[in-house]
TrEMBL record, chains A, B:
Name of this protein: Homoserine dehydrogenase
Keywords, sorted A to Z: Amino-acid biosynthesis, Methionine biosynthesis, NADP, Oxidoreductase, Threonine biosynthesis
Reactions it catalyzes: L-homoserine + NAD(+) = L-aspartate 4-semialdehyde + NADH + H(+); L-homoserine + NADP(+) = L-aspartate 4-semialdehyde + NADPH + H(+)
Residues holding NADPH: 122
Keyword Amino-acid biosynthesis among UniProt keywords: yes
Origin organism lineage: Bacteria, Bacillati, Chloroflexota, Chloroflexia, Chloroflexales
Annotated source species: Chloroflexus aggregans (strain MD-66 / DSM 9485)
UniProt binding sites for NADP(+): 8-13
Domain Homoserine dehydrogenase catalytic: 152-347
Record-annotated active site: 220
GO BP terms: homoserine biosynthetic process; lysine biosynthetic process via diaminopimelate; methionine biosynthetic process; threonine biosynthetic process
Family, as annotated: Belongs to the homoserine dehydrogenase family.
Molecular function GO terms recorded: homoserine dehydrogenase activity
SUPFAM superfamilies: Glyceraldehyde-3-phosphate dehydrogenase-like, C-terminal domain (SSF55347), NAD(P)-binding Rossmann-fold domains (SSF51735)
TM region positions: none
Amino acid sequence: MTPIIQLGIGGVGRALARQIVAVAPAIRRRYGIDLRYIAIADSRGIIAGDPTVSEEQVHQILAVKEAGHGLDSMTNAITDRHWIELLPATIAIVVDVTATSEHTAPLAAAVSAGHRVVLANKRPLCDEYDLFTALTERGATRYEATVGAGLPVIGVLQGLLDTGDEVLRIEAALSGTLGFLMSALEEGSSFAEAVWKAHALGYTEPDPRDDLSGADVARKALILARTCGIPVPADAVSAESLFPPQLATVSVAEFLQRLPEAEESVMERFAAARAAGNVLRYITCITPDNIEVGLRELPADHPLAGLRGPDNMISFTTRRYHDRPMVIRGPGAGVEVTATGVLSDIIATAREL
Amino acid sequence: MTPIIQLGIGGVGRALARQIVAVAPAIRRRYGIDLRYIAIADSRGIIAGDPTVSEEQVHQILAVKEAGHGLDSMTNAITDRHWIELLPATIAIVVDVTATSEHTAPLAAAVSAGHRVVLANKRPLCDEYDLFTALTERGATRYEATVGAGLPVIGVLQGLLDTGDEVLRIEAALSGTLGFLMSALEEGSSFAEAVWKAHALGYTEPDPRDDLSGADVARKALILARTCGIPVPADAVSAESLFPPQLATVSVAEFLQRLPEAEESVMERFAAARAAGNVLRYITCITPDNIEVGLRELPADHPLAGLRGPDNMISFTTRRYHDRPMVIRGPGAGVEVTATGVLSDIIATAREL
């Protein structure tokens, strides 16, 4: 059996648990792999198996979380021990689908003890560079879902590098929210109107500045660059923010109200691009020497110019894919497709154990 | 060490051997995997290692093949035994980069003896359905390079299926040659002119009917459908041919001369598509109930309509990627990128051993 400890049972975590329960019998038949939870943790408690968490217990955990409670509310919850103490003597897969930094050091400790890690959480890969290498050395950690959710990005990049290809340029649109906003501008909306609409429809984070700051895209850029072997320090990737500094610390309500203050600068860029026959996109561009994250004017025939709406798109120009790049495109967010990326990584890891 | 037997040392085979020699030290450092040839075979002889084929011997083999000779011309060549007799007691990876059917049954025998297989050769997967399942059961055979060369197609599809997603529709442009011809028509060329040009530039097979018959695309469609779990019999996928039956058996020279006889039917289809505001593409469409390979009119906003020139493009519409598909695009042929796909599969397999 392949023991799994899952950290986090929010939206992605619940989708993952449902997918694992659904496919476990088929995976057993197809690959002879027996995926079994030995523990599931949230920030307040751990449900540990005896020795494995039964399917019935998984459904109980899902019900408790969907009712808005913490796992500490369950009678058999562990609250006095850390998950790392539950790691078995055999090799386990630790899956981090939280959004916190708190597991970074324990995950590195688990790797150095010979365990394997699968991440949807970007934070552990965005800490000090030494922690990134500690987590990823010998391929101990997979993290496909951290960039583009279920789209094949990290695995493809590692495959190119492992086979001796050389990355010349990665160009990518990695924020569905910012893609949606750019398309709205092209359809005649003002920037503030577009943000209001995206916020009302739930396309943005509850605080839309989490999207508009570009910080999440910067984390993805950092992960891509480090995967390329570029030893980028933590916080060395700065993203262009789409709102002025005076709106950084006000309440969400006030921010939404004062959005027109962000309007002029974005709309000027948009108008200038359109006047030049170009399009405006919020993109990540990584070369061996440089990492840029921000609004860029692109010629109309650029691969990323064809992007509409909330899709992600990643273009790899390499020594082998030189004249014409390899391009991957599709929905890059959402709990189901993110869980798909995580589960693919779990299966790939389990096949190695 | 991970023992490799490579069948075929043509263009893709030589690119693969060069890539393996180049990356072996890095793969050893990165994953602790020691990729070693134990034998390399062409249709006339086998060079076997003692116990492994040295890097110097690999270079000798490359030189012999580049000079146009068979491996039987080398002093240490084996010509009286079959490669299957050279399989070791430990698990080996057998790599088929030939274009023949002759290895299909021995490859299935190797799999049933516990060995693993990596294919760039489509033929072994296009034989009887039982042979397909024998080769692929428990993931024993990887075959990423058979569709789209180095583009992530088969692995992505298997990842979707393994995680419980359901494929509703695969639409794909899988022939760079036919893509080139369609783009040429859009640029004002006639069909015969486009084929003559593609033939002169070496974009087609020596006999352009090998491309224009659609037979190679039909094989890729069969592999995709079978990977989806559809039990398609051998030869059950028929492709639309772009030349009339009376040109099927004439010489290549006569075929090229009489190409205008194929002109009318293609140009009529092209004109009709254009008049309706559509584009004409040679595509594969797979649903759970149907497999089609041929010329289709597509609306201008269809993902495959945006394709220009010789790129491949594959669009997966699934239960999870429903509103917007996952799309992969890029060069889908060429010895270097095909070898990349094969080597990625070899590394993934070696990590499991």
